[in-house]
Each structure stands twice: as structure tokens, then as C-alpha cells.
Amino acid sequence: MGKRSTVTPGRTRRSTVPRWAQVCTAFGALLVLLSGGMLATSHALIARYAGSVRQADLFGDQAAGAPVQHADIKGPLNILLVGIDPRAGQVNEPPRSDSIIIVHVNPGLDSAYLFSIPRDLRVDIPAFPKANYRGGTDKINAAMAYGSRVPGQAAPDPARGFELLSQTVSDYTGISHFDAGAIVDFTGFQKIVDAMGGVDMYIDSNVKSEHRQPDGSYRTPNPKGEGYIGPQATYTKGNAHLKGWQALDYVRQRYGLPHGDYDRQRHQQQFIKAMVTQAMSRDVVTNPLKLDAVLRAAGKSLIFNGRGNSIVDYAWALRDLRSDSIQMIKLPGQGIGTGSSYQGERLLAPTDDFFASLETGTTDQFLAAHPDFVNKEK
């Protein structure tokens, strides 16, 4: 694992720079990859939309002009999903990975572990000559920004950014190889939810929105300083049916929650499972118009690389994976520094042992010995 800081841990400092979309989750990518069950009746239909999914060399191992080597998909698998939040009108701003999710699929391809890497995790980022980056220590979400810079070109390249981020994640976790990866933006994610007709999920705590009003419109920035003014959308503990904007808003919230970003990560994971359940429901699978809209929205939202296999190949390989066989994992961590000296987050022991268990195939035994790593549904 990467080198850990020894700065005194403390509470996360609230950013003074408003970010209208702190988190852009990789839900859209996960929806397509983990909804292989739809293929039981819709294999040809999904294949028809595969061409709308953008392809890119996300791992930097595809030589220009060289044919991609197709291989059978066998478990176990490690899939890296990254959410970015492109800002309207700022096409030359390097993207940052506002959401980093790893899916570890077990050898039988019918169960998986899902966990999030904190966006503010303090790590060593390796040198990346393609972007003239010399390497250094920073928050992990900066890796994508550093890697996406193209010398002599104003516009960034998210695929290069993903490449550096994947190297950084591998160095930190010890996961030496990712079998597939995807980038998704939040606009596409919201469209997927709306195409499904919304999503049902359990809200595990009362949450007030930092960004939205009850009608979905954005709150007004506070002219006197930090934060926003105006009525707030609220999400009440219990079962709820969320529209696209509500789902995105809910999983973005971290301020006011007892454990900040760690609670937000849990909400993201809960929502991923809810999306997968909805995607494989008869309401979607047996409704041609709705399924068409979902697939179109998902296809337009993604940049995908399967290292020789298409997104349809992966969806078919994971056809036996269901939402109730996806185990959500929470990694223990804490802030580094306090107040204005806040530097980021660090993960705590025995997270190193959890990462090692993924490589040795002993994660079930690890979780039996460390039940606190399991994210509870309710």
C-alpha cells in the first residue's frame, strides 16, 4: 500500500470553493456491467446499442493501430469505475475523479464485493511522462487531473487521466491488474435513472440537501460568504422512490452527516444495488420502450475499456450476478490534519489485509473476522 501520512488526524475541513457536483458516480457503467441478467431475453438488443458506448485505451497498454486481443472472461475480476464531473463551458478543465469504485467479482462470476476509495485519500502518485507529470503526494482524485494533461494541447484527455489513476490505485491497494474500466459523467447517470422511471431505495438517515431546493432547482449561493441560501430538499429515513435529480442529489451529500464522505460512500453503494435491482426488474426488462431508453442513456454515458472484450461480453459473463449477491464494503479511515491544515484522508488498519485478501481469495474469511467492514443495508 502507498505511504501513509503521519500528520495528526482530524475532522474534514469544509471547502470554501462551491462545487455543484462533488460526486459523479460510476453508476451508469456499473448498471450495464452488472445487469447481465437482462441478457437472458435481450442479448441481441443490448448488442445493438454497444456501438454507442465510447471506447478508449484507459490502461495505456494498447499500441496505436494494434488489434485488440479478445480473451475469455474468467474470474476473479477487478473492475475500476470512475465518475467525473465535466463542468458546462469548461471543456479545458482537467477532470478529477469524484467517485472511485472497485468491483471485485469472485471466481464463479456470480458474487462480488464493492468498495469505494475516498476521493480525498492522501497517496503517492507515480510519475507519468505522457503528461509531463513528475510524480508527488496528493489527494487521489488529483491523479486523473494530472494524467489528463496533453503537452501542447489545451483540451484534456480523460483516458490518459484514467490511466494514471489506475496506476495510482494499483500502487496503493496492491491490486496489480484491472480487467476492465469505465468512466461515466453525472448527466448520463441522471438520464439512466429517469429512463428507468426512477428508483426505489431505502434512505438510512435523514438528509438535507446542500445544493437543491424541494422542487429540484438549485439553491442560491450565499452572497455573504460560504454555502447557499433558500429552502432545502430533504430525504427522510425510510423507503423512497427517487427521480434522477433526487438520486444524484442524495448520493452527493456529505456535509451534515456524522461521518461525512464515508456516509456518502455508503449511500452510493446502496444506490448502486438499488439501480441494479431496478434494471433487472420486469418493469424494465419486459418494457421495450423503457429498456430502449435505459440502454440509450447508458451507452451515451460511458467511456469503456474491457481489455479485448466488449461491454456486452462483460454483461453476458456477469449474467448470474444479482444485486443481493453484491457485498458492500466500507473501508475505515480518518482525516489528516484539522481545520485549515486539513490535508485529506487516510485508511486505517487492517485495510491492507482486506486488499491482500482480494488477491489471495480469502475475503470471506477476512470479513468473518472483521464484520465491521460490511456495510449494512439498513
Question: What does this 3D model show about the protein?
Answer:
The structure is a single chain. The chain is of the alpha+beta class. Helix content is 32%, strand content 20%. The protein contains twelve helices and 18 strands. The protein has helices at 27-34, 39-49, 142-147, 158-173, 186-195, 244-252, 261-279, 282-285, 288-301, 311-317, 351-360, 363-369, and strands at residues 9-10, 54-55, 77-84, 97-105, 112-116, 122-125, 136-139, 180-185, 199-203, 207-208, 220-221, 228-229, 234-235, 238-242, 302-305, 326-329, 333-336, 344-347. The chain has a seven-stranded mixed sheet, sandwiched between helices. It has a three-stranded antiparallel sheet with strand order 1-17-18, with no helix packed on it. Strand 17 and strand 18 form a beta hairpin. Helix 1 (27-34) packs parallel to helix 7 (261-279) and helix 5 packs across helix 6 (244-252). Mean pLDDT is 82; it is low at 2-29.
E-strand count: 18
User: Uncertain spans, ≥5 residues at pLDDT below 50?
Assistant: 2-29
Query: Order of SSEs, N→C?
Result: EHHEEEEEEHHEHEEEEEEHHHHEHEEEHH
**Shape summary:** globular
Q: Please list the strands of the largest sheet in the order they lie side by side.
A: 2-15-8-3-4-5-16
What is the rounded distance between the termini? 31 Å
Helix content: 25-40%
Largest sheet: 7 strands, mixed
Mean pLDDT: 82
Structural class: alpha+beta
Q: Tell me the number of helical segments per DSSP (H or I, 4 or more residues long).
A: 12
> For the CA atoms, what is the radius of gyration?
20 Å
Q: Approximately how much beta-strand content do the residues carry?
A: 15-25%
